Amino acid sequence: MISVSAGTMVAAGASPKISAHGGHSGSFCLHAADSLEALVQAYCEQGFSRVGLTEHMPPPAPNYRYADEVAAGLTVTQMETRFCAYVAEARRLQRQYAGRLQLDVAMESEWYPGAAEQVRRLCRDHRLDYLVGSVHHVGGVNFDFSPQDYDQAVRHCGGIEALYRAYFDAQYDLIVTLEPQLVGHFDLIRLFDSDYRQHLELPAVAERIERNLAAIRQRGLTLDLNMRALLKGATEPYPALPLLQRAVALGIPLVPGDDAHRVADVGQGIDQAYRLLAELGALPVCWSPTRISPKDVPC
Q1: How far is the CA of 237 from the CAs of 90, 257, 258, 298, in angstroms?
Q2: Considering only CA atoms, which of 181, 173, 167, 174 is closest in space to residue 132?
Q3: Alpha helices, DSSP H only, in the chain?
Q4: Angstrom distances, CA of residue 127 to CA of 3, 52, 89, 219
Q5: What is the fold of 2-296?
Q6: Which residues contact 53 (CB under 8 A, 6 or more apart)?
Q7: Is the pTM for the entire model greater than 0.85?
Q8: Cα–Cα distance between 90 and 256 in angstroms, integer?
Q9: CA within 13 Å, CB half, 190
Q10: Which first-to-last residue range defines the signal peptide (predicted)?
């Protein structure tokens, strides 16, 4: 499992060294660009000391493919093969850059019917270093690929509040079922919602947020301080500031992630992440995962 301890406070503006949610590359993800090796080289050149490679898991069924994967005609079998190639290339780079950059070969989850079994199998078969637990679907409907997909998810759930409730319920199920070492972009559900602050404060939503944060704390998990939101035009990261403040108050560890999708994204927002942690009085964590063994994969 993950060992996380408080590190020395990083001064505002200091060069950051960790991205636990390192994101995706064009080698293995259609909505990303540039090769995985190019991204790793960029991290190395920027002086990072530790980076997690976190490619998306392949789906267990074709109806859970992303829109670009459907358009490209990728089959489930092809995506499984692509994921195997990702792990092989990531392990090669892990060996090649040893001594210059600590690379961890991880995976970003999905959550829908059949996801738990798929996650467990992939973690076991590929001996992944850790798991990023993320939710991109509600009721089996993907909500984060485009505003149109988001609107479809709202309609599917019967309204925006129902969407938020369903999202945080799905996230809770993921947390207690898989206990992912890193909980990814906690409030991603606000991605295409300009009124997200008021929706996060709705009593039924706020209760679920508090429940999920308590579950994270009780299980000793870590929150992804995901800075990619800033690249998409947001004014605050995931989690939003009120949720971030609550997580800090609960003593939940946070670790920065740039969630890069191309070389130009590498390191983006990480300086802000460390400044924000300093302003909140939260010590940056030392992210030190150990490889998942089959017995560590929840059954």
Answers
A1: 27, 10, 10, 29
A2: 181
A3: 36-45, 67-71, 76-96, 115-126, 147-157, 160-178, 196-200, 203-218, 228-231, 241-249, 270-279
A4: 17, 14, 14, 22
A5: TIM Barrel (3.20.20)
A6: 22, 36, 40, 90, 93, 103, 104, 105, 106
A7: yes
A8: 21
A9: 25
A10: none
Half-sphere exposure of 116 (CA within 13 A, CB side): 12
Please write the tens of the pLDDT for every residue from 97-115.
999 999 999 999 999 999 9
**Which one is predicted more confidently, 143 or 15?**
143
| Whole-angstrom distance, CA of residue 108 vs CA of residue 89 | 17
CA-nearest of 193, 110, 109, 116 to 151 is 193
pLDDT score at 9: 35
Residues 39, 31: Cα–Cα separation, whole Å = 15
- In this predicted structure, the answer to whether residue 248 has a pLDDT above a threshold of 90 is yes
- Residue 284 has a pLDDT of 61
Q: How far apart are CA 167 and CA 199, in angstroms?
A: 12
Any idea which of 10-14, 50-54, 153-157, 223-227 has the lowest mean pLDDT? 10-14
Among 278, 111, 120, which Cα is nearest to 188's? 111
Q: What is the DSSP letter of 144?
A: S
Task: Provide the pairing of β-strand 130-133 with 137-138.
Answer: unpaired
Cβ neighbors of 232 (< 8 A, separation 6 or more) are: 191
Per-residue pLDDT reduced to its tens digit, 14-32: 545 899 999 899 999 999 9
Instruction: Classify residue 55 as exposed, middle or buried by CB count within 10 Å of its CB (0-12, 13-18, 19+).
Output: buried
Of 171, 224, 159, 231, nearest in space to 195 by CA:
159
Secondary structure class of 87 (helix, strand, coil)? helix
